Structure formats: structure tokens, C-alpha cells
Amino acid sequence: MRRSRERRKAAGFRAVTSWAPTEGAGIPYYSSHRLIEARSLALHVAIARKIDRDPTLLELPKKNLLRWRARTNLPPAWMGEWQALLKRPWPEIAALITELSERAARLRQSSPFPGVLTPAERERIYEAFRA
Fold first, then answer.
1. Is the pTM of the predicted complex or chain greater than 0.90?
2. 3-state secondary structure the chain
3. pLDDT over 90 for what percent of the chain?
């Protein structure tokens, strides 16, 4: 291990222990992943508001999951997690999809809510998050 480190050091490599942007290099100071997470949260807030106004729209994510499950032999774990969540009362689901927790962010990455928002509603949210 020591020899390996010595060789890397002799070759000009050094251990990186933290990320710090180079001043004046034009490196953005924001994380594009954070921007995507914020956009996803905004989409799900709009979804929750729309389903609050029309609870029949809650059938759409359930149908999406059934259709997705039929297309795969070995469904991923998130499908089962969403199916269990969608059996809960709507206020619990709405609270979860608009929550700021890591679990909620992870679940929003595999959201079964496509089709709840119209293309125009989605575009308005996407436009708000464009740089």
C-alpha cells in the first residue's frame, strides 16, 4: 500500500479530501442534482394540489404501476414500495410526496404520477427551473 502511494505521489497524484471550486474557472456553485430534486418537488406539489381538487386522479398512478409491473419479470423494490404507499389515505400520500426527506426524494425519482399533470402544467414548472 505504501509503495502504491509513493508511486502515485511521484507521478504527481495527490489525495483529494474535499471539493473546492477553482476561483475564476467558471465552475457553477450550484449542484444540478439539487436543481433537479427541487424541480421534482415542485412537480409533486402541483400533483398533490391537483389530486386534492380531483381525487379520481389518484387512480392514474395505481394504473401506471400495474402497467409497469406487467412489463417486467422481476419488478424493482420501488414498485412494491409505491404500491404499498398508494394503499394509504390520500393525505398521507400527499404529505410524503411533498416531504423534504431523503426517502421522499428517492421515491420521487421513480414516481408513478406521470399523466396527472398536463404537458402545459409540466412545461410551466420546467420553465421555472431553467437557468
1. no
2. CHHHHHHHHHCCCCCCCCCCCCCCCCCCCCCHHHHHHHHHHHHHHHHHHHHHHCHHHHHHHHHHHHHHHHCCCCCCHHHHHHHHHCCCCHHHHHHHHCCCCHHHHHHHCCCCCCCCCCHHHHHHHHHHCCC
3. 54
